[in-house]
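stage 2 :: seqdesign
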C-alpha cells in the first residue's frame, strides 16, 4: 500500500472514499480558534475534518468550511453522538442538531463516540436509519474494543465503516487492529502523538534524526503505513503544515517494527471498559 499524497484515500466497506489524513479538533475552542485551524488545514490540502458534538465547536467548523472556498463535496466531515444523548435515546435528534450547528445537509461519517453500556445497540439502530436516509454517507463507532464490536455485529445489519480509537506507539492494540481488518472496519487513530509524549521517546527521536523528519512526522507516517487513518490535532499553522509532510518518505520495515515494539498497552485517554461520563 503506497500512500504518497495528502489526497490519497482508503475505500470504506460501503465503497465511500475517506482520506487517510485529516485534522482533529478535540479541545479546540469554538469561534476564531477552530475556524482558523480548519481554514489553515484546508489551505494546506487537508480534506478531512473530524469533530464531535461534545467538543462544542461544530458551529465554528461548519463556518470555516463554508468560508474556505473549498466545495463541501470535496471535504470529508465527521462528527459523533455524545453519550448522554444515547442514554436519553436522542441519537436521531442529536444527529439533526449536529447538522444544524454544522449548517450542512449531510455528513460523510457519523460515529458513536463511546460504547456506553446498554445504550450503543439502540444508538446503532438509529445510525442505521440515518444511513438509510442518505444523510450520512457512512456510519461507524469510536473507542470500541473487540468485544464491543463482536456484540454490535451480532445484533446489527450494517458493519461499522470505521472504528476511531486511541492509537500510538505505546498503545498499538494488535488484536483490535487485526479484528478490524478481518471485518473490513477501517481503523482510525486519535491522539497519535500521545499528547506530546512522543518527543521524549528515544527511539522516535532517533528515527527522526535518521529520516531528517520531526518525531510527529515519524509517528504519523507509521500510522498510515499501518493502514490506519490518522487525524492529528493542532491549532498552530506551522504544525498543521508540518504534519502534512509525511508523504515524501517511507519508514523501512525494521523501523516500523521498532515502533511496534514500543507497545506498552498504555492509555493516555480513558479506558473504553471503564469510563464514567
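stage 2 :: out
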Amino acid at each position: 500500500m503506497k500512500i504518497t499524497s495528502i489526497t490519497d484515500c482508503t475505500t470504506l466497506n460501503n465503497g465511500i472514499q475517506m482520506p487517510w489524513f485529516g485534522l482533529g479538533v478535540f479541545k479546540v475552542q469554538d469561534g476564531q480558534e477552530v475556524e482558523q485551524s480548519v481554514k489553515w488545514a484546508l489551505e494546506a490540502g487537508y480534506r478531512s475534518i473530524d469533530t464531535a458534538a461534545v467538543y462544542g465547536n461544530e458551529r465554528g467548523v461548519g463556518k470555516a468550511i463554508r468560508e474556505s472556498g473549498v466545495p463541501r463535496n470535496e471535504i470529508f466531515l465527521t462528527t459523533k453522538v455524545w453519550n448522554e444523548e444515547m442514554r436519553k435515546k436522542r441519537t436521531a435528534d442529536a444527529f439533526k442538531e449536529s447538522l444544524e450547528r454544522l449548517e450542512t445537509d449531510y455528513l460523510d461519517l457519523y460515529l458513536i463516540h463511546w460504547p456506553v453500556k446498554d445504550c450503543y445497540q439502540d444508538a446503532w439502530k438509529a445510525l442505521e436509519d440515518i444511513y438509510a436516509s442518505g444523510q450520512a454517507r457512512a456510519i461507524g463507532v469510536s473507542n470500541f474494543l473487540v468485544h464491543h464490536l463482536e456484540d454490535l455485529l451480532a445484533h446489527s445489519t450494517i458493519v461499522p465503516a470505521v472504528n476511531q480509537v486511541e492509537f500510538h506507539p505505546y498503545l498499538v492494540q494488535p488484536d483490535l487492529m487485526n479484528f478490524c481488518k478481518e471485518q473490513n472496519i477501517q481503523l482510525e487513530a486519535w491522539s497519535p502523538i500521545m499528547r506530546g509524549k512522543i518527543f521524549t521517546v528515544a527511539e522516535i527521536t532517533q528515527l527522526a534524526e535518521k529520516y531528517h523528519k520531526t518525531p510527529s512526522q515519524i509517528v504519523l507516517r507509521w500510522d498510515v503505513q499501518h493502514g490506519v487513518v490518522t487525524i492529528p490535532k493542532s491549532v498552530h499553522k506551522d504544525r498543521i503544515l508540518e504534519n502534512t509532510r509525511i508523504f515524501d518518505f517511507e519508514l523501512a520495515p525494521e523501523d516500523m517494527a521498532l515502533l511496534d515494539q514500543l507497545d506498552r498497552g498504555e492509555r493516555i485517554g480513558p479506558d473504553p471498559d471503564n469510563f464514567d461520563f
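stage 3 :: structure notes
- The domain at 9-260 is CATH 3.20.20.100 (TIM Barrel).
- The chain has one domain: 9-260.
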